[in-house]
Structure formats: structure tokens, C-alpha cells
Amino acid sequence: MTDPKPSMFLPLKHRDFAFLWTGQSLSSIGNAMFPIILAMVVLDRHSGATGLGVVLAVQGIALAVGTVLAASIGDRWRRTRVMIGADVVRAVGVAAIAIAPVHLNTAVFMVLVIAIGIAEGLFLPAYSAVPPRLLPEEALQGGNALSALSQYVSMVAGPTLAGLVIAGVGPGPALWIDVGTFAASLATLVFIKETDAADARDESADEEEPGGIVRRGLRDFNEGIREIRSRPWVGASIGMATVVMTFCVAPAFLAAPIVAEKSLGGSAAYGGAFAALGVGSIIGSIVGGKIRTSRPGTVACCGLFTIFGSVGSLAVLPLVGVLICWAIAGVGVTVFSILWMTALQQDVPDRVLGRVMALDWLGSQGLMPLGYAAAGLVAASIGTRDMLIVSAFIVLVAAPLPLLVRGGTTFSSRPAAVENEPAGTTV
């Protein structure tokens, strides 16, 4: 990260990354459409709110299971092959639902939802871990910024497109659009020439022994844990993210529609808050791609302090203040994500990167369902406003914790000489 005037679009000069980014930009639109479509399909099946809750819970559990599998086996195959396999499963699953979304047998419907969730859990860590095999180190930050940019644009465009298509012609055609985005992803992935890790190991002999696959998977999972433990800044950051996502972000997401309905003007205010978050995230993608600093950990963790404003604003501010705070939080959290992802890709050995990425997801996202459940109980006990104030102050305590351990300020395990460089930051 030494180029004083880096170009965010430099990674697109690399053929294989350009294929990856193009395909995933299209696919992410379908990914953003799917939750909206799935909800409409479930409601059209007359399953009601309870049925929708069950489906979403099952999908979340399946996603976590897929990520656990990725933490065990994700570095044993080329990452693009894992992504291709996951895309095939998701495309087939969505197509099967699209054929008969309302009349599909309930058991078959749930199996398809589980398969789609597991495949997504396998896909996400592989996608996060593949850029170092396609880009030189100096282009990784720009590549992560581009990926974040397309993701957040899709988060705005996908639900909008899904709503328009469902309103016009129903959920079936919307599902086929999602299938088409998977096809676009597959069409680009097959042309990518992924560089194999120099230190990849061939342990196929284990598979020939009884229980060899399971034993190898457990060994690989434990190796991912060891890599995290050997890098205090990684473990501290994942732990911090677990606390913030579970006890701060989950309560805010749970409280947002309640507060919007009671004091901010209704559902339009709720949608406006997430629109502001999306706009801020798009801006954060651009800013995050341009930052150059010898203290990325410090800059990243400072970005998370913006969550304090987004959570606290729901408790004390009018709508305009909430919108501003949520937009600022979008910038800060996205800057953190880009610097964090780049640091992992640069510091963690390629042979275990997929597993570390999977464990990172489990730590930061895996306990959010528990956070939603706990937030509901706490809000019922002390009130929504007090819960939000407590959650906001948890951010202030948790966000700087990674800076207290070795490598936390630099997001790096490299020699101490790096720690002594001037702490300048340029954008």
C-alpha cells in the first residue's frame, strides 16, 4: 500500500479479476433480489408470518452450515471451482422453485432452501479468498473496493428490481431473473485462470482411508483456528466484530422498524434509513479504495465508531439526524470492511485463507440470530430506547479493542519495523 495516487479501477486491467468482478456484479443483483422474492413466495403459499420466520431461520442455519464446511474444506480445491459448484447448486435450486413456486411440496421447498443456503455459505468465503490469486498485492485494496461498490449498488438496485417485477408479473419471473444472474456468474467463472497456491498440499491419500475425509476436515478446521490464534490482531478483530454485530447492530436492525413506526413517520422512514445506509456504503467503497496509510487498523477501527451514531440516533434524534447518522455509518463500516479484507488477503497464507475467511464470517455474522432474540427480550424488559443507548455505548468500548494487541494498529503480522513507520493517511 505504497502508491500515493492509486487508481480504484487498476484491478480491472487484470483480465481474470475483470471477469470475476463483472460476473459477480451481475450475480449480486440476483442475490439482493432473492430475499424479497423468497418472502413473497412464502406468503403466496399462505404460510403467514410464522412460516416466513421458519423459512428465514432455516436458510440462516443452512448458510452457517455451509460456512462451517467452507472452514473445513474451502482450501482443498481451487476457489473458482468451489464458486462454480455453489453457483450451479443455487441456480438449480432457484430454478426448481421458479417452476412451481406456490404448488411445490413443502418438504421439497425446504430442501431447496437448505441447499441454496449451504451453497451460499460455501461460496462467500471462496469469493473473499480468491482475489490474491488473481491480483498483485498492490491491487488488492482497489479490488476489494470495487467488489464492495458493486455489492452495495446491488443492495439498492436488487430489492427495487424485485419489487417492480413481482408487482408487474409475479415472483416466478423474478426467480428466473435470479437464475439468469447465476448463469452470468458461471459464464465468467469458467474463463478465469486461477493461480494455484505455491504451498498447497495434496492429501488425497487421507480420502482413501475410512473416515479420512472427516479427519482431514477437522484437521483443516483446527488449522484455521491456529492461524487466527497466531495473529492476535485477527482474533481480536473477529471477537470485536462478534460483539458489535450481535449486541449493537442486531438490536439496531430489530428496533429500526419499531422506532420508525412510533416516532419517525412510518415505513417510509424505515426504508429511508436503509437507503441512507446504502448511499453511505457506496461512498465508503470509493473512499476505502483510495485510502493509503501505514496504520490501516487504526483507520478501520475508527470507522466503526460511526456505528455509535447510527444506533444512538434511533434513540434520541429526529428523522433527518437518523438519516445522516446512518449514511455516515455506511461510509465508516465499508471503509473498515475494505481495509480488513485487504489485510487478511495480504497477511494470511494462501493455503489457509479460505478457512480464515469462513471463520471470520462465522464470528461476525453467525451469532446475529442470537442477537435478534436477545434484543427482543431486552427491549421488552428495559424499553427500546434504553436498549439502543446501551448498545451504542457498547460500540465505544468494543471498537478500539483490536488496537490494544500486537499488529492491531497496522492490521499486519509483519516485523516491528512496519510499526515504526509514520502514521500518515492519504485519500
Automatic annotation (TrEMBL):
Pfam families in the cross-refs: MFS_1 (PF07690)
UniProt-annotated location(s): Cell membrane
GO CC, alphabetical: plasma membrane
Record bears the keyword Mitochondrion: no
GO molecular function, one term: transmembrane transporter activity
CDD domains: MFS_MefA_like
InterPro entries assigned: Bacilysin_exporter_BacE_put (IPR022324), MFS (IPR011701), MFS_trans_sf (IPR036259)
Membrane topology, from the record: Multi-pass membrane protein
Ranges that cross the membrane: 20-43, 49-70, 148-169, 233-256, 268-287, 299-320, 326-344, 356-382, 388-405
Keywords of the record: Cell membrane, Membrane, Transmembrane, Transmembrane helix
Classification via PANTHER family: INTEGRAL MEMBRANE EFFLUX PROTEIN-RELATED (PTHR23513), STAPHYLOFERRIN A TRANSPORTER (PTHR23513:SF11)
Name assigned to this protein: MFS family permease
Organism listed in the record: Streptomyces murinus
